[in-house]
Amino acid sequence: MHRSGIELINLYWEEVWNNGNLELIREICASPIVRHDANEVTSLTHDQQIARVAAQRTRLPFFTHEVLVADEHHVCSVWNMTIREGGERELCGIEVFRVEEGRLSHCWNSGYIPGLWGRDGAEREAREPAILPSLSSIDTDWIQDILTSVDKSTPRVGVLQSVDRIGNGTLSETARVVLHYNADPENYPTTLFCKFNRSTPEIDAANKRVGFYEREINTYSFLRDHPDISAPKVYFAATNPDTGATNIVLEDLSTRTTPGDQVRGASVEEADAVVRALSHLHAKFLGTEPSDWLFDRQPRAAMFHDSYRIGAAALKEFLGSAVDACDYELIDRFEQLYLDWVNLPVGTKTVLHGDPRVDNILFEAGPSGIKAWLIDWGMTGVGSPQFDLAYFLTGSVPVDMRRQHDRRWIAEHAAELAKASPAYDLASAEMMFRAQAVGAACCNRAGRAYRRALGTRCRASDHPRSAQLRRRSRLGCLRRHTLAFYNVTGVAAPSWLTTPKRKHHGSVS
């Protein structure tokens, strides 16, 4: 009398695999038994089956299993396996066997899946997400750990549809992750934005100097408790102090926003939105004092003075004759005044974005108008609220538009801050804006110096389109900043600033 499918499968897992009775294979399996794996079919004789099991048993696997369904011709079993030798590991799978003449003749194998099959009523174990070395290491388990650490009710992440690289900046590489759940995804993210650090000796040295990565980690951790700030929701932000690896996982805004265009500059409506976002940030944290994680330029004045000089030289090499000689003269003159500027008293301080160029901003159009999302928080600092405002308006808004609207924008910004501190007045705001407008350009020069030091200048021979766009972006930004310089000298300029003569206009900057 032939054994049933249930009898055969019980002997297969318990006697052959767990107890090592390998000769039993000759009784319960056909020769050959045909294995059906993904994209492959393999026929194994008794001797080949015995050799295969013997090789795998050196790691002391232990199986538990459950028969889900069985009839006269087939048996389906789900199994869990714990490897006890050579590094403990848990795997699971499902196999369907065909039964012919009392033997297992065919096997359809799901493959070995990390983890154990879930049990009804069992709560998912929450694990601390690992810090990965690169975007290529992203998998379903890591995404699951991140989402579960934020919301334990997150369904199982069944499939990562794609991990699409979408950028490779000076300091980081980024990707958009598309995922699917084993349940209704309505209340859970179906895409995520991942930002990992790049690591070279030059970048690592610059980060040690300035702390871009740690500051952005700290900023997103800080903003987690302030969802009203116009920044993407953070799901995970951590760094490995031993390896320097940094992982940031954010809400993906790409499907509903448009990135800012540094070449074109911001429109009036976009600038309105940025002023609102900065006003809310500055008003909420008005009165913030310096702390370890907030960038403060004054203690680093000498370092940034050096960076300014290096950056000015790099800029001349990069833009050449496209820039007027008097503009280069202005840049050189301000180098002598840099320390005076950075050490100016700034009055009441607040939390700053620190680098609010228009290409660090995403714009979302909605029924009530445009909303600005602030991204790339690696230079988050503390200082005058007018620094961010001047940095954005003088570097990212077309000059004629800025001249027409800057007084309104400064007034709206000051009015919002006055709600938090009634002593904050418009006259003081305008005067501080003038001083900070001067400093915006020097920060742009310092940033250019870092890109030069890190070896990330775009070479036209390698990337002609990127080189052209970057050149246009730098040129547009420089022209906006230098024209702001000239305007400052004509309207209640700070007494320590003198510049070459050029026509000025009646705007605040």
Automatic annotation (TrEMBL):
Q: What is this protein called?
A: CHK kinase-like domain-containing protein
Lineage from the top down? Bacteria, Pseudomonadati, Pseudomonadota, Alphaproteobacteria, Sphingomonadales
- Domain CHK kinase-like: residue ranges: 248-423
A Pfam family reported for this protein in Swiss-Prot or TrEMBL = EcKL
